[in-house]
Amino acid sequence: MSTAFHLQTNGQTERLNRALEEMLRIYTTYKQDQWDEYLPAAEFAYNNSKQISTGFTPFELDTGQHPHTPITLAKRTTTNVPVANDFIEHWNIMLKIAKDHLREAQERQTKYGQYHLTAEQGDQVLLSMKNTNNPPQKS
Fold first, then answer.
1. C-alpha 96: how far from its chain's center?
2. Residue 14: which domain range?
């Protein structure tokens, strides 16, 4: 158990708390007075996402299966209900658009991530001492 005065817990708990905090921060206002309204949705999203450490979702490990969500229903091609078919078609279009945007973002990040500055000995460069413990020495 962690408390306000003893935040040190195991790394897994700290990582979970950080992930939930990041997820909730997106939806809360600057007053942070309604975060508890979004906690169930954030918990569901976390439990339905694959964990890097295990390769499984918490739902898979706990119940052996994923719960039904709109995305699992969208994997079905057709139903006997026209409105459901329209929903599935719309959902699949939205998923394709989202995947295309994610792919474009990954390509941009890869492009900028591969940009390296090089400096040769004798080149003058500016260094930030902001995150160091030693103040710059005057010559």
1. 19
2. 1-65
Mean pLDDT of all residues in the chain? 77
Number of domain units in the chain: 2
| Distance separating alpha carbons of residues 115 and 112, to the nearest angstrom | 5
25's CB contacts (< 8 A; 6+ apart) are none
CB 34 within 8 A of CB 28: yes
**pLDDT, tens digit (0-9, with 9 covering 90-100), for 41-96:** 888 888 888 887 788 988 999 998 888 777 676 666 677 888 878 887 887 788 78
Identify whether 133 is part of a domain: no
Closest CA to 39 of 27, 51, 56, 49: 27
* Token reading at 10: 């195991």
- Distance, in Å, from the CA atom of 76 to the CA atom of 89, rounded to the nearest integer, reads 10
